[in-house]
Specification:
With 914 residues, the chain is α/β, with parallel strands linked by helices. The strands form seven sheets. Strands 1-8-2-7-6-3-5-4 form an eight-stranded mixed sheet, with helices on both faces. Strands 18, 20, 21, 22, 25, 27 and 28 form a seven-stranded mixed sheet that branches. Strands 10-16-14-11-13-12 form a six-stranded parallel sheet. Helix 6 (103-119) packs across helix 7 (143-157) and helix 7 (143-157) crosses helix 8. The relative contact order is 0.09.
Length: 914
C-alpha cells in the first residue's frame, strides 16, 4: 500500500534527478522510479501514474514568442551580467523546478524574462527616463509566473520599488499577493503584518538570507496609515520593496499621497529610485462599461501620475486580450499615441507551453471532446425556465436543470477517475457561473449542495454493495449512465471507478464565491490533502482568479464582449494527467462567440509574429489592432449609451466577411435571388458559363472573373442590419478602390451539397440546379422572425471553404507555415494532423473569393423549414498591396440595443471594487 509520504519522497527524488536531463525518454523515467522504489515503496499503479506524470511534463516545450520594439532602446543587460547577483531569480527558478517545470520550459521562461528585462531601462542609468511596454499572454497560461520572474530579475538588477496592480477585485489582489509572497518575498505577508515574524513560504524555504519589504499583505490592500507606521522611506531601503494593489482610484490616491509626502526628495514631489510598475489585466477597468468614462480616466490618470512621481520608471501592462483599451479608447489615431499608457517602446507576445489547454484547443481544434451545450434552462410560454439567461434579482430556483446535474455528476466521476490514476492529494474544482446576482448565486449554491448530498448519501449507503446490488438506485444509476456517455472510452473501467465513488464524493464541498458569502478558495491550506470544491459565483470567478484543478465548468452567461468572455474562461490553463476528463457546459451561442474570438486573437498573434520579421513597431501594431473588424464590437460597447451614431473605421485586407444574419421578408428574399441570377447572367455574357465551371463538391467555381458582376451583385443584395460587416455600400467602396490592383480578378464559388437526404430543398442558383445547404436558425429568431441569424454561432460557410481556388503550391506554403506555430507543432509532436484554420489560406490568396450560398433554413425548436432557396454570401479578401484606407461603418443605437446590450453590461451585483 502506498503512503502519501513514500510517493511524495519518490517524486522529489526522481524530479531532482531528471532536472539535469534535457529530454529523458519514457524508459529512463521508469528506470529511475524503479531504482528508488525499494527505499520508498509505492504500488505498481502509483509508480506508473508517476511515470506518466513525468513523461507528460518532459514532453512540454515552450518558445520565447515574438517582440516589436521602437528601435530606440540600448541593450544593457549583457554588459551588466557580471555585476548582477541573480539571488532572487535563482531561488525562484529552484521553486519552479519543485513545481515540475522542465528544463525546456524553464529555459524559455529565462529567455523571455531576460528579453522583457532588457526592454526595460538599466536601473543604474542616471538621469530621468521612462519606458512603456506590454506583454501579451494567454488566459490562465502562466502570466503570473512570467511577471513574478520579471519581478525577481528586476530586483536583482537594481529596481528598488516594484508595484503590481492586480485587477479590480479583492480576491484577485489577495491571490496575486500570495503568489508574490511565494515567488519573491519568501514570507507570509499576512503573518508579517501581525508582527508574528511571518512563516517562510515558497522561495523563503529555499533561501531566506535576504528579505524584500512588502507594504501590502495577502489579506490587506495598501493602507496609508500602515505604511506610515513602518517609519521608513523607500529611498533608504537596502532591499527592494514590493506592493500589490487593487486597480481602484481610492487606493491609487492614497498610495500617491504617501509616496509624495514620505518618500520624495526634500523640496520635490519626485522620487529618485528606479521603479517598475506591472499592470496585470491591463485592459480591465477601462473597457468594463459599468465604469463611467470619468472613472476610467481617473484611474488612467492616477497610474500616469504614479509613473511621473518617479524620475526613473517603467510600465509593463500584462494582458491576454490584445484588443486592449490602450489601442482603441481615444477617438482618433493621434490621440491613441499621446501621453497615455500606450506601449510605445515594446510589445512582447508570449507563446504558451505546448501543454496549454487554451481557446485554440478547446474551441477550434477539439471542441467535440470538451464542449457540451446547455439547452434546458429557458423554458417556454407554458413552462417557466429553471435558470434562464435573463432572470431577475429575485429569481427562485425550484430545482437544478438536468444539464447542471450532469455536470456535477461528471465532476464526481473526474474525482473518482483521478483517484484511480493515483492523484490522491490533487486539488479538484468545478466552476458554476450562471448568474450575476449574489442572491441567486447563494440560492444556486444551496440547490447544488442538496443535489450533491443526495449523491453522497447514495454512495455512502451503497458503497459496500456490488454495483449489481445497487442497480435500482437512481443516484448510482445516473452516475453510471453519465460515465458511459462521457468517460467509458478513456481506459478506466466501471469496476475501478465504482468502488471509489464514496471516497471521491466525501470531501467535496460547495462554496459561493462572492461578496455576500463567507466561502473562500484557500488552496494553500489544503496543500497536502487537496481541496475538492464546487465554486458557485459570478464576476468574482470571471477574471484573474485561478481555480486549481478545474475540470468541469458550467458557464451560463450572456456577455458578448471578447475580453469578458475570454477572461471568464477560467477553464483555460494546464491539466496535466486529466485533460481528457475536462468538460465545459455553455450555450451554443456562447460557443460560437468563443470560436469567433479565439480566431480573432490568433489572427492578431500571427500578425504580431509576422510584423516582428519585418521590423514593425508597436505603433504599427496598434493601428493593425485598431482596424480589425472586432473593433466594431469593442468600440460600440465602449460608447454604448452615447445616444448617437458611432463611426468605426475598419480594414478589410486579409479578412473574411459573410452575411451572418438574413432578412426574412419574402420581397427581400426574392430580391436576393434576383441578384444571384443577374450575377450568373453577367458572368455568362463574359464567357463564364455554368457548364464551363470547375466542379467543387456539390457546387462549382469560376476562376479569374472580372469585378463588375461582383459589384453589381453586392449592390443588388438586400443586407440585414444585424450583419454589419457585409453592408454592400462599404464593401463596394473597398472593392472599387482596388479594382486596378489586387481586386481586379475574382474567383466565384457557388456552394452546394453533393449528397443530402431526400426532401432537401433544391435551387437553380447561377444557372445550375444545386442542393441547398441546411442551416438551423439561431435562437434569436424566436424573438424576431423578421431576421434569421444563421445558426447560434452565426456561421454560414463551412470550415475549409477559403482553400477553394488555391493551387497545391499555395496550399502547401500555407500549411507549412502554420506547422511552425506552437499549437500545430504540439500536435505534430504527438503524431496528429493539425487543424488548419481558414485564415492561413487567406494569407496566400492572390485573388479575392466570392462565395455564394443557397440555404434551407430550419426552425431552432422543431426543425421545420422556415425558408428555402435563401441566398447568402461571403468574401475572402487577400492581403492588400496598396496603402489601405479603412472603410467607415456606422453603428447606431438600434444595433447596440439589439446585439450588444446584455444582462452582463452592469457586471455583477457582487463586485467588490470600492
Amino acid at each position: 500500500m502506498t503512503t502519501p509520504e513514500a510517493k511524495d519522497m519518490l517524486q522529489r527524488i526522481v524530479r531532482a534527478l531528471l532536472a539535469s536531463e534535457l529530454n529523458p525518454t519514457p524508459e529512463r523515467i521508469r528506470e529511475l522510479i524503479n531504482n528508488y522504489r525499494e527505499v520508498h515503496p509505492v504500488s505498481d499503479a502509483d509508480a506508473e501514474a508517476l511515470a506518466r506524470q513525468f513523461e507528460m511534463m518532459h514532453q512540454v516545450h515552450m518558445d520565447v514568442g515574438s517582440c516589436l520594439t521602437d528601435g530606440l532602446f540600448e541593450p544593457w543587460l549583457d554588459g551588466r551580467r557580471a555585476s548582477i547577483d541573480p539571488y532572487y531569480w535563482g531561488r525562484y527558478k529552484d521553486l519552479l523546478v519543485g513545481k515540475n517545470f522542465n528544463n525546456q520550459v524553464l529555459s524559455a521562461l529565462d529567455d523571455v524574462t531576460d528579453r522583457v528585462l532588457e526592454l526595460l531601462e538599466n536601473p543604474e542609468k542616471p538621469g530621468p527616463w521612462d519606458r512603456r511596454g506590454m506583454v501579451v499572454g494567454h488566459v490562465q497560461s502562466g502570466k503570473t509566473a512570467n511577471y513574478t520572474g520579471l519581478v525577481c530579475k528586476a530586483a536583482d538588477a537594481g529596481y528598488k520599488l516594484i508595484i503590481v496592480i492586480a485587477g479590480i477585485h479583492n480576491n484577485l489582489r489577495n491571490q496575486t499577493q500570495q503568489r508574490i509572497d511565494e515567488g519573491f518575498v519568501g514570507r507570509d505577508s499576512a503573518e508579517l503584518a501581525k508582527k508574528s515574524g511571518g512563516g517562510y513560504v515558497g522561495v523563503g524555504r529555499i533561501d531566506n538570507r535576504r528579505r524584500p519589504v512588502t507594504f501590502t499583505t495577502s489579506t490587506k490592500d495598501f493602507n496609508q496609515a500602515t505604511a506610515e507606521s513602518v517609519g521608513v522611506s523607500i529611498r533608504t531601503l537596502n532591499e527592494p520593496a514590493v506592493l500589490v494593489i487593487k486597480k481602484n482610484s481610492s487606493t491609487l490616491k492614497n498610495l500617491l499621497k504617501w509616496l509624495q509626502e514620505h518618500n520624495a526628495a526634500p523640496g520635490t514631489k519626485t522620487i529618485d529610485v528606479p521603479m517598475l510598475l506591472i499592470d496585470d489585466e491591463a485592459d480591465n477597468a477601462s473597457i468594463n462599461i459599468r465604469w463611467g468614462k470619468d472613472e476610467v480616466a481617473r484611474i488612467n490618470g492616477q497610474i500616469r501620475s504614479l509613473l511621473n512621481t518617479f524620475e526613473r520608471s517603467c510600465y509593463v501592462g500584462y494582458t491576454a486580450t490584445p484588443f486592449a483599451n490602450i489601442f482603441i479608447d481615444p477617438d482618433t489615431d493621434d490621440e491613441m499615441f499621446k501621453g497615455d499608457l500606450f506601449p510605445e517602446n515594446f510589445i512582447v507576445s508570449l507563446d504558451p507551453p505546448t501543454n496549454y489547454f487554451g481557446p485554440t484547443k478547446v474551441f477550434l481544434e477539439d471542441s467535440e471532446d470538451f464542449i457540451r451545450h446547455i439547452e434546458d434552462t429557458e423554458g417556454d410560454d407554458n413552462v417557466p425556465g429553471l435558470l434562464p439567461l435573463r432572470h431577475k434579482i429575485d429569481h427562485t430556483l425550484t430545482e437544478l436543470p438536468e444539464s447542471m446535474k450532469k455536470a456535477i455528476r461528471c465532476f464526481v466521476l473526474v474525482r473518482a477517475t483521478r483517484l484511480v490514476r493515483g492523484d490522491v492529494t490533487s486539488h479538484n474544482s468545478m466552476l458554476i457561473n450562471a448568474s450575476h446576482f449574489t442572491g441567486v448565486q447563494n440560492r444556486l449554491r444551496n440547490e447544488v449542495h442538496g443535489y450533491l448530498d443526495s449523491l453522497k448519501n447514495a454512495a455512502r449507503i451503497r458503497g459496500a454493495l456490488s454495483f449489481v446490488e445497487t442497480k435500482n438506485d437512481p443516484a448510482i444509476e445516473s452516475l453510471h449512465t453519465t460515465w458511459l456517455e462521457e468517460y467509458s472510452r478513456l481506459g478506466e473501467t466501471w469496476e475501478e471507478i465504482y468502488p471509489r465513488l464514496h471516497e471521491a464524493l466525501a470531501p467535496v464541498k460547495v462554496v459561493a464565491v462572492n461578496s455576500g458569502s463567507a466561502g473562500n478558495l484557500n488552496y494553500p491550506e489544503h496543500e497536502r490533502s487537496g481541496l475538492n470544491v464546487i465554486a458557485v459565483g459570478g464576476f468574482s470567478l470571471s477574471r484573474g482568479l485561478t481555480l486549481e484543478g478545474l475540470s468541469i465548468s458550467y458557464f451560463h452567461r450572456n456577455s458578448l464582449m471578447y475580453d469578458t468572455l475570454l477572461q471568464m474562461g477560467r477553464w483555460f490553463g494546464y491539466r496535466i494527467g486529466y485533460e481528457d476528463l475536462c468538460r465545459i457546459w455553455m450555450t451554443e451561442e456562447a460557443d460560437g462567440w468563443y470560436v469567433h474570438i479565439a480566431e480573432a486573437v490568433e489572427e492578431l498573434r500571427t500578425d504580431l509574429r509576422r510584423m516582428e520579421q519585418v521590423g514593425a513597431t508597436p505603433r504599427e501594431f496598434g493601428l493593425k489592432v485598431r482596424s480589425h473588424p472586432e473593433m466594431l464590437l469593442v468600440t460600440a460597447r465602449n460608447r454604448m449609451g452615447s445616444g448617437k451614431q458611432l463611426k468605426v473605421r475598419i480594414g478589410l485586407s486579409n479578412k473574411f466577411v459573410e452575411t451572418t444574419t438574413l432578412r426574412n421578408i419574402p420581397a427581400v428574399l426574392e430580391r436576393n435571388r434576383e441578384a444571384a441570377t443577374r450575377l450568373a447572367d453577367d458572368l455568362n455574357q463574359l464567357g463564364f458559363t455554368p457548364d464551363g465551371a470547375e466542379e467543387v463538391g456539390g457546387g462549382f467555381l469560376h476562376r479569374c472573373a472580372p469585378p463588375g458582376p461582383v459589384l453589381k451583385f453586392l449592390e443588388g443584395f438586400a443586407n440585414d442590419p444585424a450583419s454589419l460587416l457585409t453592408e454592400p455600400a462599404q464593401i463596394g467602396e473597398y472593392i472599387s478602390e482596388r479594382v486596378g490592383a489586387e481586386l481586379g480578378l475574382w474567383d466565384v464559388l457557388v456552394v452546394g451539397v453533393k449528397d443530402a437526404p431526400e426532401g432537401r430543398s433544391r435551387s437553380v442558383l447561377m444557372g445550375r440546379e444545386i442542393i441547398c445547404q441546411q442551416r438551423t436558425a439561431g435562437a434569436k429568431y424566436i424573438g424576431d422572425q423578421r431576421s434569421i441569424p444563421v445558426t447560434n454561432k452565426q456561421r454560414v460557410a463551412s470550415r475549409g471553404v477559403e482553400k477553394v481556388g488555391l493551387t497545391s503550391v499555395q496550399i502547401s506554403a500555407a500549411t507549412d507555415e502554420f506547422d511552425k506555430e506552437p499549437e500545430a507543432r504540439a500536435r505534430l509532436q504527438k503524431g496528429e494532423t493539425p487543424n488548419y484554420p481558414d485564415r492561413i489560406f487567406r494569407e496566400v490568396r492572390e485573388r479575392p473569393l466570392l462565395i455564394v450560398h443557397s440555404l434551407e433554413l430550419t426552425h431552432p425548436e422543431d426543425a421545420s423549414v422556415i425558408a428555402s432557396d435563401v441566398v447568402a454570401w461571403g468574401i475572402s479578401f487577400p492581403k492588400t498591396t496598396v496603402a489601405e484606407e479603412r472603410v467607415e461603418y456606422i453603428v447606431n443605437e438600434v444595433w447596440l440595443q439589439e446585439f450588444i446590450r446584455t444582462n452582463d453590461e452592469l457586471g455583477d451585483e457582487d463586485d467588490d471594487v470600492e
